[in-house]
Every structure is written in structure tokens, then in C-alpha cells.
Fold:
Amino acid sequence: MRYASIDIGTNTLRLLIAELDGDNLRPVLYKRKITRLGGGYEEGAGICREAAERTFAALAEFRRNIDEAGVSTVLAFATSVVRRAVNREWFTEEVRKKTGIEITVIQGGEEARLSLLGVLSVIDERQGKKLVIDVGGGSTEFIVTVGSQMSGGWSMEMGVVHLTEKYLLSDPPSSSELKAMEDEIKGVLAELRGRMLGDGIDPLDFSGKRGASFVGTAGTITTLAAIDQDLEVYDRSRINNYTLSKERIAEIYGRLCSMTLGERQTVLSLEKGREDLIVPGSAITLLAMDMFGFSEAKVSDAGLLEGIIIDRVKPGAALKY
Structure:
């Protein structure tokens, strides 16, 4: 049987078609489209029409790919911007009418759980304590684990699309814009620590000072890993389990902040449409590492997209991807 999972994010739409081969999830097709669904989002109006139309077109293309591949089960999940939008029912109904794809809108806790399943399918070392971060367009998920068991997960309303549109108005961004952005990130991270303590989890137990490891998934961290290796062509096999030092992330962040959007477009492995978003994404990663005392990050190319299928085909199983 072939399964298709679709991750409808605030910035990126992703499609994975895969089949189960014993205890291995074998990819058949992987595609991604940056549609910036959260672009122009307003709390009172929700998802803007132009962003929705870009997304409808991309999902129609995904539908054709799914039909051509002979997929038996389609699992489409929407995250941050859709779950917050006042017009989310209109959006999901339009997708159903235009593509036949039924969307499930998931809450932050479920997003964190499924993302962890995907991460664990590719990370070499599953033992010990980990802080897993999934930087998204509309929110950032933080997950703490002991071995393969999730101890807690928190979805914070801190996404790269919001931060870009709110703060990075100059090209390149000014020092005052960057400071204001970083101050908001620090505030959200302080709120995260408070939420962890409120749930009975000591943040220090999942810090570098206590021997935990830091794992990143999603577009920001994988892009940083690709930039660090000067990859001309993105190669998932060179991204999974790659180790990034905090020092290198800080160097890349500083270099990107000093560039114009046009100059960033010339950077190898920087996906078109991510030229502005990589700045706040790098800041979130770097400041999270600072707050939790980590000197390096392990990178996972797998996350929510893979976790959706793993959860469906073998709930609770430790599949390898």
C-alpha cells in the first residue's frame, strides 16, 4: 500500500508518498512548495485570498501526483495558520471542492507528537534526553524526550512568517529591527520555560548543562545544515544526523543579516522563497540554544510529514525512514 501525507504549513506545503517495506518507510516521492499561506494574515480576516489561491494551486498539483502514484490513503494535516484562522472552514471546504483532499486541522500538542515520530525515524541516537525544536512559519514546537518517549511538548506562537512581516522591514534589516525581533523571541522562550515548569518539567533537565542533546527539524535547521556544507543540490542523506555547532550557526546568521534579499538568493542551498525567513529562523534556533545551554545541534530532515504516515501504519512503532 502507498500512503500520502500532506503538511499544510504557514510557509511551506509538503507532500510525501511512501510505502511500508517491513519496518522501513520507503519514500516514493517527496515534493515541497513555498506558498506562504500565512502571508498577509490578519487576526480579524484570517487567511488572505491571494495566499489561499497559491495554496489551492499547489494542492491541485499534489492531487495529480497522488493519483498518478496509485496512493491508497491520503492524510492531509494543517497546522498553525489554519488552526488560528477565523476563515479556516472556508479554506478547508475550498480545498475539498477543488482537490477532493480532506484536511485535518491539528492542535499544537498533536503536531509536536507527530513531529517527534518523524524525527526519531531518522536520528541515529535515540537514547538519552533530548530537546527537539521544530521551527515553523506560524509557530515553533518544543518537545522533550527521554529515549523514544515524549515527556512534554509545547507549541509557541512564534513563527518565521510573523516575525519577518512584523520586524524585518528594511533590506538588509537594520540593527534595531533585529534587536526588536530577538527581544520578542527571548520573551517567548522565557514563556516556554514558565510553561515547562508549570507542567512539572525542569528546563535544566533538558539542557546542555545536564547532558541532553538538541535536535532540530524543519526548513530552518536543514537549510542551515545545507549552507554549512555548501551543498549545490540538497541531499537529505547529508542532512540527517548532521551536526551544526552554535558557533557556525551564529556565523551564518551574522552573514545572512548583513545581506540584501538579492544577495541571499545567491547563497547555495537557500531555497527560493526562504531568503527573508531564514533570518528569524536562525535567530530562534540560536537563541533557543543559548537559553538551554547547547553548543551543537543534531539535524533531522524528517518530522511531521513522516510522523503522519508512521502514526497511521504502525502506531507506537519505531520505524526507520
